[in-house]
Protein backbone atom coordinates (compact mmCIF):
# COMPACT_ATOMS: atom_id res chain seq x y z
CA UNK A 1 0.00 0.00 0.00
CA UNK A 2 1.16 3.50 -0.72
CA UNK A 3 0.56 6.65 1.29
CA UNK A 4 1.16 10.00 -0.38
CA UNK A 5 1.67 12.99 1.89
CA UNK A 6 1.49 16.52 0.52
CA UNK A 7 3.33 18.96 2.76
CA UNK A 8 5.53 22.03 2.95
CA UNK A 9 8.65 22.39 5.03
CA UNK A 10 7.37 25.80 6.19
CA UNK A 11 4.22 24.24 7.66
CA UNK A 12 4.33 23.40 11.37
CA UNK A 13 1.23 21.20 11.14
CA UNK A 14 3.00 19.17 8.46
CA UNK A 15 5.94 18.69 10.82
CA UNK A 16 3.60 17.68 13.64
CA UNK A 17 1.27 15.74 11.34
CA UNK A 18 4.15 13.63 10.04
CA UNK A 19 4.94 12.53 13.60
CA UNK A 20 1.27 11.75 14.25
CA UNK A 21 1.01 9.79 11.01
CA UNK A 22 4.14 7.83 11.91
CA UNK A 23 2.66 7.05 15.32
CA UNK A 24 -0.50 5.86 13.58
CA UNK A 25 1.60 3.80 11.17
CA UNK A 26 3.47 2.22 14.09
CA UNK A 27 0.13 1.02 15.41
CA UNK A 28 -0.84 -0.57 12.10
CA UNK A 29 -0.32 -4.33 11.79
CA UNK A 30 0.75 -4.23 8.11
CA UNK A 31 3.12 -1.29 8.49
CA UNK A 32 5.93 -3.15 6.72
CA UNK A 33 3.75 -3.23 3.61
CA UNK A 34 3.29 0.53 3.52
CA UNK A 35 5.33 2.82 1.31
CA UNK A 36 5.30 6.54 2.01
CA UNK A 37 5.83 9.15 -0.70
CA UNK A 38 6.19 12.83 0.12
CA UNK A 39 4.71 15.27 -2.36
CA UNK A 40 5.26 18.96 -2.87
CA UNK A 41 2.94 21.74 -1.79
CA UNK A 42 4.21 25.32 -1.49
CA UNK A 43 2.19 27.42 0.92
CA UNK A 44 3.78 30.56 -0.45
CA UNK A 45 4.48 29.81 -4.12
CA UNK A 46 4.78 33.48 -5.04
CA UNK A 47 7.77 34.13 -2.81
CA UNK A 48 11.04 34.62 -4.67
CA UNK A 49 14.21 32.74 -3.85
CA UNK A 50 16.24 34.83 -1.43
CA UNK A 51 13.23 36.81 -0.17
CA UNK A 52 13.52 35.59 3.40
CA UNK A 53 11.95 37.11 6.50
CA UNK A 54 11.70 36.20 10.16
CA UNK A 55 8.58 34.12 10.87
CA UNK A 56 7.77 36.20 13.95
CA UNK A 57 8.10 39.51 12.06
CA UNK A 58 5.96 38.13 9.28
CA UNK A 59 3.29 37.00 11.73
CA UNK A 60 3.28 40.34 13.53
CA UNK A 61 2.93 42.25 10.27
CA UNK A 62 0.27 39.91 8.92
CA UNK A 63 -1.98 40.10 11.97
CA UNK A 64 -0.99 43.52 13.25
CA UNK A 65 -0.12 42.08 16.64
CA UNK A 66 2.70 42.73 19.04
CA UNK A 67 5.65 40.51 19.78
CA UNK A 68 4.04 39.00 22.89
CA UNK A 69 0.94 37.89 21.03
CA UNK A 70 2.99 36.44 18.21
CA UNK A 71 5.07 34.57 20.76
CA UNK A 72 1.88 33.16 22.30
CA UNK A 73 0.73 31.95 18.87
CA UNK A 74 4.02 30.24 18.30
CA UNK A 75 4.01 28.79 21.80
CA UNK A 76 0.65 27.18 21.13
CA UNK A 77 2.12 25.33 18.15
CA UNK A 78 5.30 24.57 20.09
CA UNK A 79 3.23 22.87 22.80
CA UNK A 80 1.58 20.66 20.20
CA UNK A 81 4.94 19.81 18.68
CA UNK A 82 6.52 18.97 22.02
CA UNK A 83 3.60 16.74 22.92
CA UNK A 84 4.65 14.65 19.91
CA UNK A 85 8.24 14.57 21.09
CA UNK A 86 9.38 17.14 18.53
CA UNK A 87 11.74 20.03 19.16
CA UNK A 88 10.22 23.43 18.37
CA UNK A 89 11.86 26.78 18.94
CA UNK A 90 9.28 29.48 18.72
CA UNK A 91 11.60 32.33 17.79
CA UNK A 92 14.30 33.06 15.26
CA UNK A 93 12.88 30.98 12.44
CA UNK A 94 13.12 32.13 8.83
CA UNK A 95 10.36 32.08 6.26
CA UNK A 96 11.08 32.00 2.53
CA UNK A 97 10.60 30.15 -0.74
CA UNK A 98 10.49 26.37 -0.35
CA UNK A 99 10.67 25.62 -4.07
CA UNK A 100 14.31 24.53 -3.99
CA UNK A 101 13.72 22.28 -0.98
CA UNK A 102 10.89 20.59 -2.84
CA UNK A 103 13.11 20.11 -5.89
CA UNK A 104 15.75 18.50 -3.70
CA UNK A 105 13.12 16.29 -2.06
CA UNK A 106 12.29 14.98 -5.54
CA UNK A 107 15.97 14.27 -6.21
CA UNK A 108 16.11 12.55 -2.81
CA UNK A 109 13.11 10.45 -3.70
CA UNK A 110 14.78 9.32 -6.92
CA UNK A 111 17.75 8.25 -4.81
CA UNK A 112 15.75 6.56 -2.04
CA UNK A 113 16.56 9.27 0.52
CA UNK A 114 13.41 11.36 0.63
CA UNK A 115 12.28 10.62 4.15
CA UNK A 116 15.79 11.21 5.48
CA UNK A 117 16.03 14.62 3.82
CA UNK A 118 12.55 15.67 4.89
CA UNK A 119 13.20 14.77 8.53
CA UNK A 120 16.51 16.63 8.50
CA UNK A 121 14.93 19.68 6.86
CA UNK A 122 12.04 19.75 9.33
CA UNK A 123 14.43 19.42 12.25
CA UNK A 124 16.70 22.14 10.90
CA UNK A 125 13.78 24.49 10.34
CA UNK A 126 11.73 23.92 13.46
CA UNK A 127 14.01 22.49 16.14
CA UNK A 128 17.42 23.86 15.31
CA UNK A 129 16.46 27.15 13.70
CA UNK A 130 18.96 26.63 10.96
CA UNK A 131 17.71 28.49 7.93
CA UNK A 132 16.66 26.07 5.23
CA UNK A 133 16.49 28.99 2.81
CA UNK A 134 20.13 29.20 1.81
CA UNK A 135 21.92 26.88 -0.57
CA UNK A 136 24.77 26.14 1.81
CA UNK A 137 22.47 24.66 4.43
CA UNK A 138 20.47 22.78 1.82
CA UNK A 139 23.62 21.17 0.45
CA UNK A 140 24.73 20.14 3.95
CA UNK A 141 21.31 18.69 4.78
CA UNK A 142 21.12 16.80 1.48
CA UNK A 143 24.60 15.34 1.91
CA UNK A 144 23.72 14.39 5.48
CA UNK A 145 20.64 12.63 4.06
CA UNK A 146 22.90 10.56 1.83
CA UNK A 147 22.84 12.41 -1.47
CA UNK A 148 25.92 13.07 -3.59
CA UNK A 149 27.07 16.69 -3.18
CA UNK A 150 27.83 17.15 -6.89
CA UNK A 151 24.34 16.08 -7.84
CA UNK A 152 22.75 18.30 -5.19
CA UNK A 153 24.69 21.34 -6.41
CA UNK A 154 23.71 20.57 -10.00
CA UNK A 155 20.03 20.50 -9.08
CA UNK A 156 20.29 23.75 -7.12
CA UNK A 157 22.15 25.43 -9.99
CA UNK A 158 19.51 24.42 -12.54
CA UNK A 159 16.12 25.96 -11.65
CA UNK A 160 14.39 23.61 -14.10
CA UNK A 161 15.63 20.44 -12.41
CA UNK A 162 12.62 18.71 -10.83
CA UNK A 163 10.60 21.92 -11.26
CA UNK A 164 7.93 20.09 -13.23
CA UNK A 165 7.82 17.37 -10.59
CA UNK A 166 7.04 19.99 -7.93
CA UNK A 167 4.35 21.61 -10.08
CA UNK A 168 2.83 18.26 -11.02
CA UNK A 169 2.47 17.43 -7.32
CA UNK A 170 0.83 20.78 -6.70
CA UNK A 171 -1.55 20.38 -9.63
CA UNK A 172 -2.52 16.96 -8.36
CA UNK A 173 -3.16 18.31 -4.87
CA UNK A 174 -5.54 20.83 -6.39
CA UNK A 175 -7.27 18.08 -8.36
CA UNK A 176 -7.66 16.11 -5.14
CA UNK A 177 -9.32 19.13 -3.57
CA UNK A 178 -6.53 19.85 -1.09
CA UNK A 179 -6.48 23.53 -0.14
CA UNK A 180 -4.08 23.02 2.70
CA UNK A 181 -1.46 20.70 4.09
CA UNK A 182 -0.64 18.20 5.41
CA UNK A 183 -2.86 16.15 3.13
CA UNK A 184 -2.65 12.35 3.19
CA UNK A 185 -3.90 9.96 0.50
CA UNK A 186 -3.95 6.19 1.01
CA UNK A 187 -3.73 4.12 -2.20
CA UNK A 188 -5.76 6.81 -3.92
CA UNK A 189 -8.83 5.54 -2.10
CA UNK A 190 -8.85 7.25 1.29
CA UNK A 191 -7.87 10.80 2.21
CA UNK A 192 -7.06 12.54 5.49
CA UNK A 193 -6.69 16.30 5.77
CA UNK A 194 -4.60 17.87 8.49
CA UNK A 195 -2.45 16.77 11.38
CA UNK A 196 -5.09 14.55 12.92
CA UNK A 197 -4.65 12.22 15.89
CA UNK A 198 -2.62 9.05 15.30
CA UNK A 199 -5.76 6.88 15.60
CA UNK A 200 -7.27 8.56 12.54
CA UNK A 201 -4.24 7.54 10.50
CA UNK A 202 -4.38 3.98 11.80
CA UNK A 203 -8.06 3.84 10.85
CA UNK A 204 -7.36 5.20 7.36
CA UNK A 205 -4.54 2.67 6.92
CA UNK A 206 -6.84 -0.19 7.93
CA UNK A 207 -9.63 0.99 5.65
CA UNK A 208 -7.34 1.37 2.65
CA UNK A 209 -5.61 -1.95 3.38
CA UNK A 210 -8.93 -3.76 3.37
CA UNK A 211 -9.73 -2.60 -0.15
CA UNK A 212 -6.24 -2.69 -1.66
CA UNK A 213 -6.83 -5.83 -3.71
CA UNK A 214 -10.13 -4.72 -5.22
CA UNK A 215 -9.07 -4.22 -8.81
CA UNK A 216 -11.14 -4.15 -12.00
CA UNK A 217 -9.58 -6.11 -14.86
CA UNK A 218 -9.56 -4.69 -18.39
CA UNK A 219 -8.25 -6.01 -21.69
CA UNK A 220 -8.60 -9.31 -23.51
CA UNK A 221 -10.08 -12.06 -21.39
CA UNK A 222 -11.01 -9.75 -18.52
CA UNK A 223 -14.32 -10.47 -16.88
CA UNK A 224 -16.23 -7.67 -15.28
CA UNK A 225 -15.64 -6.85 -11.67
CA UNK A 226 -13.00 -8.52 -9.56
CA UNK A 227 -9.73 -10.02 -10.64
CA UNK A 228 -9.95 -13.30 -12.45
CA UNK A 229 -7.10 -15.76 -12.60
CA UNK A 230 -7.64 -16.21 -16.33
CA UNK A 231 -7.89 -12.64 -17.46
CA UNK A 232 -6.38 -13.15 -20.90
CA UNK A 233 -3.22 -12.01 -22.63
CA UNK A 234 0.02 -13.93 -22.82
CA UNK A 235 1.20 -15.02 -19.40
CA UNK A 236 3.70 -17.30 -17.75
CA UNK A 237 2.03 -19.06 -14.89
CA UNK A 238 3.12 -20.92 -11.81
CA UNK A 239 2.10 -24.20 -13.38
CA UNK A 240 5.32 -23.82 -15.27
CA UNK A 241 4.36 -22.73 -18.73
CA UNK A 242 4.29 -19.57 -20.79
CA UNK A 243 1.30 -19.86 -23.08
CA UNK A 244 0.12 -17.90 -26.04
CA UNK A 245 -3.55 -16.89 -25.91
CA UNK A 246 -4.50 -19.30 -28.71
CA UNK A 247 -3.74 -22.20 -26.39
CA UNK A 248 -7.17 -22.34 -24.81
CA UNK A 249 -6.72 -26.00 -23.92
CA UNK A 250 -4.08 -25.05 -21.37
CA UNK A 251 -0.43 -24.44 -21.93
CA UNK A 252 0.97 -27.51 -20.21
CA UNK A 253 -0.98 -29.88 -22.44
CA UNK A 254 -0.16 -28.04 -25.65
CA UNK A 255 3.57 -27.64 -25.96
CA UNK A 256 3.38 -26.33 -29.51
CA UNK A 257 1.94 -23.10 -28.19
CA UNK A 258 3.76 -23.01 -24.88
CA UNK A 259 7.19 -21.92 -23.78
CA UNK A 260 8.40 -22.71 -20.34
CA UNK A 261 9.68 -20.22 -17.86
CA UNK A 262 9.25 -22.29 -14.75
CA UNK A 263 8.87 -26.03 -14.88
CA UNK A 264 7.87 -27.72 -11.71
CA UNK B 1 -0.48 7.69 -10.96
CA UNK B 2 1.35 4.51 -10.15
CA UNK B 3 1.58 1.34 -12.17
CA UNK B 4 2.77 -1.83 -10.44
CA UNK B 5 4.06 -4.62 -12.66
CA UNK B 6 4.55 -8.11 -11.28
CA UNK B 7 7.00 -10.10 -13.37
CA UNK B 8 9.81 -12.62 -13.38
CA UNK B 9 13.07 -12.28 -15.25
CA UNK B 10 12.63 -15.88 -16.47
CA UNK B 11 9.32 -15.01 -18.14
CA UNK B 12 9.48 -14.14 -21.85
CA UNK B 13 5.98 -12.65 -21.83
CA UNK B 14 7.10 -10.31 -19.07
CA UNK B 15 10.02 -9.19 -21.23
CA UNK B 16 7.70 -8.70 -24.22
CA UNK B 17 4.86 -7.32 -22.08
CA UNK B 18 7.13 -4.65 -20.61
CA UNK B 19 7.90 -3.40 -24.13
CA UNK B 20 4.20 -3.41 -25.02
CA UNK B 21 3.33 -1.58 -21.81
CA UNK B 22 6.00 1.02 -22.53
CA UNK B 23 4.62 1.50 -26.03
CA UNK B 24 1.17 1.96 -24.50
CA UNK B 25 2.62 4.41 -21.99
CA UNK B 26 4.30 6.38 -24.79
CA UNK B 27 0.86 6.85 -26.31
CA UNK B 28 -0.64 8.16 -23.09
CA UNK B 29 -0.97 11.94 -22.78
CA UNK B 30 -0.13 12.05 -19.06
CA UNK B 31 2.84 9.68 -19.27
CA UNK B 32 5.06 12.09 -17.31
CA UNK B 33 2.73 11.69 -14.36
CA UNK B 34 3.09 7.91 -14.27
CA UNK B 35 5.41 6.11 -11.91
CA UNK B 36 6.23 2.46 -12.59
CA UNK B 37 7.12 0.01 -9.83
CA UNK B 38 8.30 -3.51 -10.61
CA UNK B 39 7.23 -6.23 -8.20
CA UNK B 40 8.53 -9.73 -7.63
CA UNK B 41 6.94 -12.93 -8.84
CA UNK B 42 8.96 -16.14 -9.04
CA UNK B 43 7.58 -18.61 -11.54
CA UNK B 44 9.73 -21.35 -10.06
CA UNK B 45 10.01 -20.49 -6.36
CA UNK B 46 11.03 -24.00 -5.37
CA UNK B 47 14.23 -23.99 -7.39
CA UNK B 48 17.40 -23.77 -5.33
CA UNK B 49 20.14 -21.24 -5.97
CA UNK B 50 22.72 -22.84 -8.23
CA UNK B 51 20.29 -25.41 -9.66
CA UNK B 52 20.55 -24.12 -13.20
CA UNK B 53 19.56 -25.94 -16.38
CA UNK B 54 19.36 -25.07 -20.06
CA UNK B 55 15.94 -23.73 -20.99
CA UNK B 56 15.80 -25.90 -24.11
CA UNK B 57 16.73 -29.08 -22.19
CA UNK B 58 14.15 -28.24 -19.56
CA UNK B 59 11.47 -27.68 -22.21
CA UNK B 60 12.32 -30.93 -23.99
CA UNK B 61 12.16 -32.91 -20.75
CA UNK B 62 8.99 -31.24 -19.57
CA UNK B 63 7.03 -31.86 -22.76
CA UNK B 64 8.82 -34.97 -23.98
CA UNK B 65 9.55 -33.33 -27.30
CA UNK B 66 12.59 -33.31 -29.51
CA UNK B 67 15.03 -30.50 -30.05
CA UNK B 68 13.33 -29.36 -33.28
CA UNK B 69 9.96 -28.97 -31.63
CA UNK B 70 11.47 -27.12 -28.70
CA UNK B 71 13.23 -24.83 -31.11
CA UNK B 72 9.92 -24.13 -32.87
CA UNK B 73 8.31 -23.22 -29.55
CA UNK B 74 11.11 -20.83 -28.74
CA UNK B 75 11.03 -19.39 -32.25
CA UNK B 76 7.37 -18.55 -31.81
CA UNK B 77 8.20 -16.45 -28.76
CA UNK B 78 11.26 -15.01 -30.49
CA UNK B 79 9.05 -13.78 -33.34
CA UNK B 80 6.80 -11.99 -30.88
CA UNK B 81 9.81 -10.45 -29.14
CA UNK B 82 11.38 -9.27 -32.38
CA UNK B 83 8.11 -7.71 -33.49
CA UNK B 84 8.49 -5.46 -30.43
CA UNK B 85 12.06 -4.63 -31.37
CA UNK B 86 13.55 -6.90 -28.73
CA UNK B 87 16.50 -9.20 -29.18
CA UNK B 88 15.71 -12.86 -28.46
CA UNK B 89 18.05 -15.78 -28.89
CA UNK B 90 16.12 -18.98 -28.82
CA UNK B 91 18.95 -21.28 -27.72
CA UNK B 92 21.57 -21.41 -25.00
CA UNK B 93 19.54 -19.70 -22.30
CA UNK B 94 19.77 -20.79 -18.67
CA UNK B 95 16.91 -21.37 -16.29
CA UNK B 96 17.34 -21.16 -12.53
CA UNK B 97 16.27 -19.47 -9.31
CA UNK B 98 15.37 -15.81 -9.73
CA UNK B 99 15.14 -15.07 -6.02
CA UNK B 100 18.46 -13.19 -5.87
CA UNK B 101 17.59 -11.11 -8.93
CA UNK B 102 14.35 -10.09 -7.27
CA UNK B 103 16.21 -9.17 -4.09
CA UNK B 104 18.58 -7.00 -6.12
CA UNK B 105 15.65 -5.40 -7.94
CA UNK B 106 14.34 -4.32 -4.53
CA UNK B 107 17.72 -2.84 -3.63
CA UNK B 108 17.72 -1.10 -7.02
CA UNK B 109 14.28 0.29 -6.34
CA UNK B 110 15.47 1.74 -3.03
CA UNK B 111 18.27 3.44 -4.95
CA UNK B 112 16.14 4.68 -7.85
CA UNK B 113 17.69 2.22 -10.34
CA UNK B 114 15.07 -0.50 -10.63
CA UNK B 115 14.03 0.01 -14.23
CA UNK B 116 17.67 0.19 -15.32
CA UNK B 117 18.52 -3.10 -13.63
CA UNK B 118 15.43 -4.87 -14.92
CA UNK B 119 16.10 -3.82 -18.50
CA UNK B 120 19.72 -4.94 -18.25
CA UNK B 121 18.73 -8.26 -16.70
CA UNK B 122 16.09 -8.93 -19.35
CA UNK B 123 18.54 -8.09 -22.10
CA UNK B 124 21.25 -10.27 -20.57
CA UNK B 125 18.87 -13.20 -20.18
CA UNK B 126 16.95 -13.05 -23.44
CA UNK B 127 19.04 -11.14 -25.97
CA UNK B 128 22.61 -11.76 -24.91
CA UNK B 129 22.26 -15.19 -23.36
CA UNK B 130 24.42 -14.17 -20.46
CA UNK B 131 23.41 -16.28 -17.50
CA UNK B 132 21.68 -14.15 -14.90
CA UNK B 133 21.98 -17.05 -12.46
CA UNK B 134 25.51 -16.47 -11.23
CA UNK B 135 26.60 -13.83 -8.77
CA UNK B 136 29.38 -12.47 -10.95
CA UNK B 137 26.98 -11.52 -13.74
CA UNK B 138 24.46 -10.12 -11.28
CA UNK B 139 27.10 -7.88 -9.73
CA UNK B 140 28.17 -6.61 -13.14
CA UNK B 141 24.59 -5.92 -14.21
CA UNK B 142 23.79 -4.14 -10.94
CA UNK B 143 26.89 -1.96 -11.15
CA UNK B 144 26.06 -1.20 -14.79
CA UNK B 145 22.61 -0.14 -13.58
CA UNK B 146 24.22 2.35 -11.23
CA UNK B 147 24.34 0.50 -7.92
CA UNK B 148 27.35 0.49 -5.60
CA UNK B 149 29.27 -2.78 -5.90
CA UNK B 150 29.86 -3.11 -2.16
CA UNK B 151 26.16 -2.82 -1.43
CA UNK B 152 25.27 -5.31 -4.17
CA UNK B 153 27.73 -7.86 -2.81
CA UNK B 154 26.39 -7.35 0.71
CA UNK B 155 22.84 -8.08 -0.45
CA UNK B 156 23.91 -11.17 -2.37
CA UNK B 157 25.90 -12.44 0.63
CA UNK B 158 22.94 -12.03 2.99
CA UNK B 159 20.03 -14.26 1.88
CA UNK B 160 17.68 -12.36 4.21
CA UNK B 161 18.31 -8.98 2.57
CA UNK B 162 15.11 -7.93 0.80
CA UNK B 163 13.81 -11.50 1.11
CA UNK B 164 10.68 -10.30 2.89
CA UNK B 165 10.16 -7.66 0.22
CA UNK B 166 10.14 -10.37 -2.45
CA UNK B 167 7.74 -12.55 -0.47
CA UNK B 168 5.47 -9.60 0.34
CA UNK B 169 5.18 -8.85 -3.38
CA UNK B 170 4.35 -12.48 -4.08
CA UNK B 171 1.75 -12.61 -1.33
CA UNK B 172 0.16 -9.47 -2.68
CA UNK B 173 0.06 -10.92 -6.19
CA UNK B 174 -1.83 -13.90 -4.80
CA UNK B 175 -4.23 -11.59 -2.97
CA UNK B 176 -4.84 -9.74 -6.22
CA UNK B 177 -5.69 -13.04 -7.88
CA UNK B 178 -2.67 -13.11 -10.17
CA UNK B 179 -1.77 -16.69 -11.09
CA UNK B 180 0.66 -15.66 -13.78
CA UNK B 181 2.78 -12.81 -14.99
CA UNK B 182 3.14 -10.19 -16.29
CA UNK B 183 0.40 -8.66 -14.17
CA UNK B 184 -0.21 -4.92 -14.24
CA UNK B 185 -2.11 -2.87 -11.65
CA UNK B 186 -2.95 0.80 -12.20
CA UNK B 187 -3.37 2.86 -9.00
CA UNK B 188 -4.88 -0.25 -7.38
CA UNK B 189 -8.02 0.35 -9.42
CA UNK B 190 -7.47 -1.29 -12.79
CA UNK B 191 -5.68 -4.54 -13.61
CA UNK B 192 -4.31 -6.03 -16.83
CA UNK B 193 -3.13 -9.63 -17.05
CA UNK B 194 -0.58 -10.70 -19.63
CA UNK B 195 1.47 -9.13 -22.36
CA UNK B 196 -1.48 -7.52 -24.09
CA UNK B 197 -1.35 -5.13 -27.04
CA UNK B 198 -0.10 -1.60 -26.35
CA UNK B 199 -3.60 -0.16 -26.86
CA UNK B 200 -4.91 -2.15 -23.90
CA UNK B 201 -2.32 -0.51 -21.68
CA UNK B 202 -3.12 2.93 -23.01
CA UNK B 203 -6.80 2.28 -22.30
CA UNK B 204 -6.05 1.09 -18.77
CA UNK B 205 -3.89 4.16 -18.16
CA UNK B 206 -6.67 6.45 -19.34
CA UNK B 207 -9.29 4.70 -17.25
CA UNK B 208 -7.16 4.79 -14.09
CA UNK B 209 -6.14 8.40 -14.72
CA UNK B 210 -9.75 9.48 -14.95
CA UNK B 211 -10.52 8.15 -11.49
CA UNK B 212 -7.25 8.94 -9.74
CA UNK B 213 -8.61 11.87 -7.75
CA UNK B 214 -11.70 10.08 -6.46
CA UNK B 215 -10.79 9.79 -2.81
CA UNK B 216 -12.99 9.24 0.23
CA UNK B 217 -12.08 11.48 3.16
CA UNK B 218 -11.99 10.09 6.70
CA UNK B 219 -11.21 11.63 10.08
CA UNK B 220 -12.37 14.77 11.85
CA UNK B 221 -14.26 17.15 9.61
CA UNK B 222 -14.47 14.72 6.70
CA UNK B 223 -17.74 14.72 4.85
CA UNK B 224 -18.92 11.60 3.14
CA UNK B 225 -17.93 10.97 -0.43
CA UNK B 226 -15.60 13.22 -2.35
CA UNK B 227 -12.78 15.34 -1.05
CA UNK B 228 -13.77 18.48 0.73
CA UNK B 229 -11.50 21.47 1.08
CA UNK B 230 -12.39 21.71 4.77
CA UNK B 231 -11.97 18.15 5.86
CA UNK B 232 -10.86 18.92 9.41
CA UNK B 233 -7.63 18.56 11.34
CA UNK B 234 -4.92 21.13 11.71
CA UNK B 235 -3.78 22.48 8.36
CA UNK B 236 -1.73 25.27 6.88
CA UNK B 237 -3.54 26.65 3.90
CA UNK B 238 -2.66 28.69 0.87
CA UNK B 239 -4.44 31.68 2.35
CA UNK B 240 -1.34 31.95 4.43
CA UNK B 241 -2.29 30.69 7.85
CA UNK B 242 -1.81 27.57 9.94
CA UNK B 243 -4.91 27.15 12.03
CA UNK B 244 -5.80 24.96 14.95
CA UNK B 245 -9.13 23.15 14.62
CA UNK B 246 -10.75 25.29 17.33
CA UNK B 247 -10.52 28.24 14.97
CA UNK B 248 -13.81 27.61 13.24
CA UNK B 249 -14.18 31.27 12.33
CA UNK B 250 -11.27 30.97 9.95
CA UNK B 251 -7.61 31.14 10.68
CA UNK B 252 -6.79 34.46 9.06
CA UNK B 253 -9.33 36.34 11.17
CA UNK B 254 -8.32 34.70 14.41
CA UNK B 255 -4.62 35.16 14.91
CA UNK B 256 -4.73 33.83 18.47
CA UNK B 257 -5.30 30.38 17.06
CA UNK B 258 -3.27 30.76 13.92
CA UNK B 259 0.37 30.51 13.05
CA UNK B 260 1.55 31.53 9.67
CA UNK B 261 3.44 29.35 7.29
CA UNK B 262 2.81 31.34 4.18
CA UNK B 263 1.67 34.95 4.27
CA UNK B 264 0.52 36.39 1.04
UniProtKB/TrEMBL annotation, chains A, B:
<feature type="domain" description="DSBA-like thioredoxin">
    <location>
        <begin position="3"/>
        <end position="205"/>
    </location>
</feature>
<dbReference type="InterPro" id="IPR001853">
    <property type="entry name" value="DSBA-like_thioredoxin_dom"/>
</dbReference>
<feature type="region of interest" description="Disordered">
    <location>
        <begin position="242"/>
        <end position="264"/>
    </location>
</feature>
<protein>
    <submittedName>
        <fullName>DsbA family oxidoreductase</fullName>
    </submittedName>
</protein>
<dbReference type="Pfam" id="PF01323">
    <property type="entry name" value="DSBA"/>
</dbReference>
<dbReference type="InterPro" id="IPR036249">
    <property type="entry name" value="Thioredoxin-like_sf"/>
</dbReference>
<dbReference type="GO" id="GO:0016491">
    <property type="term" value="F:oxidoreductase activity"/>
</dbReference>
Amino acid sequence: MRVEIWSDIACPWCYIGKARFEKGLAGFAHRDGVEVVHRSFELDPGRAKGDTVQVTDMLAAKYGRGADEVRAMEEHVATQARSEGLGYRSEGRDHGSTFDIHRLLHLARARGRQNELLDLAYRANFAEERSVYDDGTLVRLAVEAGLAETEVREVLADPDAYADAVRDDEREAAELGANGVPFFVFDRRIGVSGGQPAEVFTQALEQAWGSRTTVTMVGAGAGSGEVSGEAGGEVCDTDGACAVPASKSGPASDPASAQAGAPS
